[in-house]
Amino acid sequence: MDKDKFNILSDFSDRITQESHPFIGNFFIDLRVLFDFRLGALLTTISTQKELDYIHFKLDEYELAYDFNIEKHFGALDISNLMIDKILKNPEMTERICVSSPPTNYFALLDEILKDVKKYNENYGNKNPYLVHFYTPLTSYPEVAKTSLLSVFDRISDMSFDVRFDATPLTQIPANKLAEFNFFLIEDICELVNKNSTTYTSIFIDRKFMDKVIIAPRHYDAKMLKPDSNLTKVMSDTETALKLFTEFCFCDRRIITTTKKGT
């Protein structure tokens, strides 16, 4: 956890050494980073302690593979990725999914990230109101889940937040709208930087994201890699390349559980 915290928060110490100090106040936060909804959908399908123990046992494999593939890593449950997608899109399942979806280290550190942003802004006289835009992959986000999430913001004094929830995927938001944000916590960096993305030109040609902080867990699409690819090198090279165009870093996502694996 300490290593993850350092990786996430170190961007702010880097910013303090810059000659210009732009206000950090418009956040785009992908709820898929804070909670594992795929795992939550999977958990809605099980009914026995044995199945739950199996999921706990396989968590490390699932987290360290960086592919978010439920079907591959929990094969004994005979649940396909297509079935998981159908559950996630079912409006009648949203509340059960939210209750079942485990939080991640990103959620655990959210209030510390916001406090560090507040400290940074106050050091340079920036006191604008804060906008937090949450992307939810679910058809709706239950009020009880919103209340729980918003309690994080209530714990931070002297910060005024305008919090919004929206189901429009990042890939469908116009580049000029995304350029209004200066801090991104997103699940898949490819959604911002692939050649078909709305922001490709803004990032790599116009260089309008140079002063924006972008943090994402490591993730890859097996279809885009050669069979003999060195995944560690691919991730390292990707991070190094993107740092030329934005303040980017990978930070591993880890699921927080209250039950020990195998118990």
Structure description:
- With 263 residues, the protein is α/β, with parallel strands linked by helices.
- It has two domains: 182 residues, Rossmann fold (3-Layer(aba) Sandwich), CATH 3.40.50; 64 residues, no CATH class.
- Helix content is 45%, strand content 11%.
- The protein has 13 helices and six strands.
- It has a six-stranded parallel beta sheet with strand order 3-2-1-4-5-6, with helices on both faces.
- Helix 3 packs across helix 6.
- The two termini are 22 Å apart.
- The relative contact order is 0.18.
Which structural traits does this protein have?
2 domains; alpha/beta; 263 residues; Rossmann fold; 13 helices; 6 strands
Tell me about the largest β-sheet: 6 strands, parallel
Uncertain regions: pLDDT < 50 for 5+ in a row? 15-19
The CATH topology name of the largest domain reads Rossmann fold
Strand composition percent = 5-15%
Treating each run of at least 4 consecutive H or I residues as one helix, how many helices?
13
How many structural domains can be distinguished in the coordinates? 2
The largest beta-sheet arranges its strands as 3-2-1-4-5-6
Helix percentage: 40-55%
Overall mean pLDDT:
85
- The string of secondary-structure elements, in order, is HEHHHHHHHEHEHEHHEHE
Write down the Rg: 19 Å
Quantity of strands, as a count? 6
Name the shape in a single word: globular
**So, CATH architecture of the largest domain?**
3-Layer(aba) Sandwich
- Terminal Cα span: 22 Å
Q: Which CATH class of the largest domain is shown?
A: Alpha Beta
* Class based on secondary structure composition and strand pairing: alpha/beta
